[in-house]
Amino acid sequence: MASNVNPTVRRRRLGQELRRLREQRGMTAEEVADRLLVSQSKISRLENGRRSISQRDVRDLCEVYEVEDRRIVDSLMQMAKESRQQGWWHAFGDIPYSVYIGLETDAASLRVYEPQVVPGLLQTHPYAEAVVAGALPEATAADIERRVQVRLRRQDRIRDERSPLRLWAVLDESVLRREVGGKHTMAEQLEYLNEMSQRPHVTLQVMPFSMGAHPGVNGQYAILEFPDASDSTVIYLEGVTSDLYLEKANDVQKYSVMYEHLRAQALNPDQTREFIEKVAKEYARG
């Protein structure tokens, strides 16, 4: 479940505030970098929340921006301190997508399109093991188990009765047809999908092959929205060696509209449950 202090979200909020202060002064990131004798890329990473921010960074930037209100400086310094704390996921070691986990942990809603496998938040343990092992053929058994445990821990957001994550997932039919872990694992996984879809905060839709080309053919993506209005919506695109996070209003608008088209073209939730049940029975019969 979300912790009281989420370092990923703290970095984002602090970065947004620092960008606002810079823009108020009418300065470019390049001008700030020249003043502090650092690279422009460092200023950009501090502002987009992808880099840990030290209290010294905050102090130096506040001096450049001529922030005179000590309360503002102290507040930003405290946010910098909190942004360097560790989230629950750090206990599992080096996780490549730790930035995403931090965002997901604090998100209020998540919309995802998945063309290949069941979303991690809805995977059973056997299915998750098979997915990780297949995706990382050179990983050790210990590495596979560590990643699976992180994936299962992430699912706390779905089971949180006080403030559950609102999940809307559109799955390509290939997700159901791709036999991961064997027929028994697939039958169990699909039954679990239907079980989870009964929860009021989880909505599933399947995009059938018969629909042909659709707005999701370019690949998987996720849209994360947050309870605090000051936190901008994030578009997440997963990569093999690096991930992409989009926050510009124009990008968010394009992906959001594309997702609305996906939802309109996919089977509705009731049709989806019937479709999943049909495929699950096919696996169960062997």
From TrEMBL:
PROSITE patterns: HTH_CROC1 (PS50943). Signal peptide: none annotated. It comes from the Bacteria. Residues 18-72 form the HTH cro/C1-type domain. SUPFAM superfamilies: lambda repressor-like DNA-binding domains (SSF47413). SMART domains: HTH_XRE. Pfam families: DUF5753 (PF19054), HTH_31 (PF13560). CDD domains: HTH_XRE. This is Helix-turn-helix domain-containing protein. The lineage of its organism: Bacteria, Bacillati, Actinomycetota, Actinomycetes, Kitasatosporales.
